[in-house]
Write a structure and sequence with these properties.
The protein is mostly helical. It has one domain: Rossmann fold, CATH 3.40.50. Helix content is 52%, strand content 7%. It has a three-stranded parallel β-sheet.
Length: 86
């Protein structure tokens, strides 16, 4: 079962927390999985300690993101917003 279909399970069990860990490194799946309610997104290429930290964040009702995901999301966000005077 792919991770997008697994998120449908969350509709049945709100207690379930899913952290996506895809093998491909794209921006779009990060945003799509977060929009669908996943608790986090971690690249498989991250250091083990970063993976553990992201999962812990997700389990503590936060959003678990690995460092590379945070960097990509900031770049995406900055690219979509226009700031006055710039």
């Amino acid at each position: 079962m792919d991770f997008l279909n697994m998120l449908n399970i969350r509709k049945v069990s709100a207690r379930g927390r899913f952290v996506s860990m895809p093998g491909l490194d794209f921006d779009d799946p990060t945003m799509e999985t977060l929009a669908r309610g996943t608790a986090g997104f971690v690249a498989k290429t991250e250091r083990p300690g970063d993976v553990v930290s992201a999962v812990r964040d997700a389990l503590s009702s936060g959003t678990g993101l690995s460092p590379s995901r945070v960097t990509k999301l900031v770049k995406i966000s900055l690219g979509r917003h226009r700031f006055p005077g710039h």
